[in-house]
Each structure stands twice: as structure tokens, then as C-alpha cells.
Amino acid sequence: MHAHAPTNTCTPADLGLALERLRTTAPLVQCLTNAVVTNFTANVLVAAGASPAMVDVPGEAADFAAVASAVLINLGTPHAGQRRAMLQAARAARTAGTPWVLDPVAVGGLELRTRLAETLLAERPTVIRANASEILALATSGTGGRGVDATHDVEAARVSAIHLAAATPSIVAVSGPVDLVTDSERTVRVHGGDPLLTRITGGGCALGALVAAAVAANDDDALVGTAAAHALYSVAAERAAATASGPGSFAVGFLDALAAVSPEDLAARAVIA
Fold first, then answer.
1. Which fold would CATH assign to domain 12-272?
2. Are the beta carbons of 105 and 205 closer than 8 angstroms?
């Protein structure tokens, strides 16, 4: 999971280099994600410089996970066939050493997906990306959020995120107005973004796919890759919001901004602590 002895810091320059690696390597990301966000997720990956593959069919998912650069498993609409494919892909990814991201959408409040998430945790995801309520539900006996919405703030989940990162072991990324990324030893907060991200369908789900791409391109330090994906998202959202007249124009502008933000822009504009 942690391929080397990590440094104690994560700087904006590190994030810029992480984005440069993503653009140079154009990682192939297998997405087993929910039906509501498939198109937007694919567009986010292409705009950022990665390549999407929406391969979520049982019998194919495992074969593809073994050759993909990274895998995203998002529990948004986990119908029976996709659940089988998710388990196959996670097991194949673990065996092949393919980094993979778990997005445990709405766990805690819904039993089926909560059990599925617990089963998938045994396959050791590289990154767990979720909102605060979902992290609390995975790490404790919390009841989860209101569907896909968080009812807790990010700092309320900080201790649980650190414990979950140590226990899995995975990078844990908690999304909110200020994102928190931890590997249990290092904790990075990524500031920025715009509230319009919460007004478009797939804003959070597509971030999980971008995390997968960034981690694939930066497999020597998954925490830096994860933080870079969050920082790119925040900077692009700010750029898009500056000219948007509402959620619709923001969504289009956000894709444009993901493509336009350079590694130098990210190093200059990312705000982390």
C-alpha cells in the first residue's frame, strides 16, 4: 500500500509534480460506478488527462482490473450484477497490485451496501474516498448520512479517518468544504473549491475516479496522489465558478478548467495545510 518510507510533508510543488505525472502517463481507470454519474465521470477523467473504461460486467471486471492502471468502485447504485463485478474487480486488483479506490456511497443508512463495503474493505483498497458521515459509518457504529449527503462535518470524522487508515491500511480522504487526506501518520487538509460542486450530479463520485487516476500515476506515494486529485478539483472548481451563471454552465466550465489547469497552476494555487 505504502510503497516507500513517506516524507513528512506534502507541498504544493509535490501536487504539481503529481499532476504532471498524471498527464504524462494518462492512466487507464476502470470505473465500476453508479448509473447516475457514468458520463460525467468519464468526461472528468478525459478532461484531466486520464482514460476511462466503464467495465462493470461480471466475468470481464476481474480480467480488466488486472491490466488497468487503477480501479474505482463506487457503491451508488449497486445492482446484483454490478455487486458481483465489484467483488471480482477488487480481488483481481489486490492480486495484481492494481491500485483501487472505494467510494462507499450512503453506507451506514442502507444495510446491503454497508455489508458490501465491509466485504470490499477486506480486499484492501488503496484509497477510501467518502464524506464525513460515510467515514464515520465505516469506522464506527455510525448510522451514515442522509442518503448520499453528509450530516457530519469533516473535522468530526478526523479521528475515525485516522483510525480507519491505520486499520485497513488505506489512504482515507474525507470530502467537505475543506478536504482531509490521511494515511494515519500524515494528515493533509486541502482548502478551496466552490459550493457549486454540490449542485451538479456526480461532483463527488467523479472525484473518486480522479483520485484513482492520480494514485496510479503516483504509486510511490498514494497520499500525495490523493491530495493532488483533491487540489486539482478545488482549483478547477474555483476557476469554473468565476465565470459560471449557475450549475449548468459550471459543469461545462469545470470540465474545461480540469483540462486547462497546468501543473504549474496547481503548484501556485493549491492551498494545503
1. UDP-N-acetylmuramoyl-L-alanine:D-glutamate ligase (3.40.1190)
2. yes
